[in-house]
Amino acid sequence: MQTRKASPDELNAIFWMGFDAWGEGLSPTEYLANCHASQKYRSGVWYVLIVDNQPVSSLIVYRDRFGLGQGCFGIGSLATTPAMRGQGFGAHLLRGVTGMLLDSPDAVATFLHADIDHHFYERLGYRRIPGGDCMYFSHRRPRYVDEPPTYF
C-alpha cells in the first residue's frame, strides 16, 4: 500500500468512489461534470491510497480556506471504491495523511466534518467539537475552544 498525492489522470476514479454517496439525483455524466467543475474540489489537494497499482481510497486536503486557522488543515470527501469498502483502506489513508500533515513543524490540527458515524473517526483519534459534526485531531491542542471551521 502506498499513500501519495493523486495525479490528474486519477480524478475520474476518485470522483467515482463517492458517486453512491454524493451523486443522488444526478446521472453519472452530470455527477462527473459537476465534480470536475467544482471550485471546492479544485482548491484542495487530493490524496490516494494505492493497492495493486490502483487507487482504492481518496480524500481531499484544504488549507487557508473555510475559516481554517494558521497551521490547520481540513480533510474532506473520504471515500473508498465500493468493492473495497470494509477492509480498513479509508482508515489507513486518513491515518497516514493526518500523520503526514501534523508532522509539519507549524501544524496545529486537522479538521473534518463527519457525515457518517462519529465513532469511525473517534477510533482514529479525532475528537468531536461540541455543537456540531466537526471533529479535530491535534497533538498540540488537547481541547479545541475556537470557532470551528465552516463546512468543507
Automatic annotation (TrEMBL):
Organism per entry: Aeromonas hydrophila
InterPro entries per record: Acyl_CoA_acyltransferase (IPR016181), GNAT_dom (IPR000182)
GO terms for MF: acyltransferase activity, transferring groups other than amino-acyl groups
Record's protein name: GNAT family N-acetyltransferase
Domain N-acetyltransferase: 1-151
Annotated PROSITE patterns: GNAT (PS51186)
